[in-house]
Task: inverse folding
């Protein structure tokens, strides 16, 4: 499966569909107050890059956003990472995250942090398998029973 990864606008029907699927999945696992999903307006804010993976037919099959990392901070947060169920098991998530990490390193971002939930077994396994380490809850997730946080120092950057 050939893929491309580009930064795109979240205001596209295909991206909106992936965001809906992602939201539906999150809401099936966790109470609404424990979901920290960025909406389209938030995804369009300065300092947010939305990465879209497209397959060989140009169909959007995966998304993720990188928030922050500009100015004086050297860390950015990964949000809304999601692969369409039809595209899972094909390495889409790994290619997407590798592309984001490469871009982050080029932008001077030294660390990527993220939050997921304890019932998101595939996500927990995936992030561990690609070098993310579990870290204490940070920011808005502190005290949240349904949050698990991870971080990874980006290769090619100084610690």
Result:
């Amino acid at each position: 499966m050939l893929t491309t990864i580009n930064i795109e606008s979240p205001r596209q029907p295909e991206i909106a569909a992936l965001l809906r699927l992602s939201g539906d999945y999150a809401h099936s696992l966790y109470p609404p107050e424990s979901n920290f999903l960025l909406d389209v307006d938030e995804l369009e804010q300065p300092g947010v890059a939305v990465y879209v993976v497209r397959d060989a037919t140009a169909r959007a099959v995966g998304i993720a956003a990188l928030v922050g990392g500009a100015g004086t901070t050297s860390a950015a947060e990964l949000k809304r990472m999601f692969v369409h169920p039809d595209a899972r098991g094909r390495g889409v998530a790994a290619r997407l995250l590798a592309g984001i990490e490469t871009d982050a390193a080029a932008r001077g971002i030294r660390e990527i942090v993220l939050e997921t939930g304890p019932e998101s077994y595939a996500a927990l396994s995936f992030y561990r398998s690609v070098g993310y380490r579990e870290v204490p809850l940070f920011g808005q997730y502190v005290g949240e029973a349904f949050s698990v946080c991870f971080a990874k120092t980006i290769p090619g950057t100084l610690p």
